[in-house]
Amino acid sequence: SKSLHHYTSFINKNFTDDKKLLLIEALWEIVLSDGEIHDFESNLIRRLSGLLYISDVDSGNARKRALDKKQK
After folding, report:
1. Which H or E run includes 64?
2. How would DSSP label each residue in 11-49?
3. 1-40 confidence digits (pLDDT tens)
């Protein structure tokens, strides 16, 4: 399926808020793995966060945690 709604609907039904935050953090780790954040990547995570009912602040904190892991 090309629709994000199909996947995010499943995640919303089956994941706790904490697990959804871990998922966003893992996605940030993937985005940060090449050392660059492309507009498409950050836009995709922003859209996914919204569909998963994760605030911009929580997504930003997940990004910071992912960045901290990368720098260690």
Report:
1. helix 56-71
2. HHHH--HHHHHHHHHHHHHHHHTTS---HHHHHHHHHHH
3. 678 999 999 999 999 999 999 999 999 999 999 999 999 9
For the entire predicted model, the pTM comes to 0.91
pLDDT band at 44 (very low <50, low <70, confident <90, very high): very high
Tokens, residue 26: 């893992």
- How far CA 54 is from CA of 15, 33, 61, 72, in Å, comes to 12, 22, 11, 26
Q: Are 45 and 28 in contact (CB under 8 A)?
A: yes
- Give the Cα separation of 56 and 50 in Å (integer): 8
Residue 51's identity, in one-letter code, is L
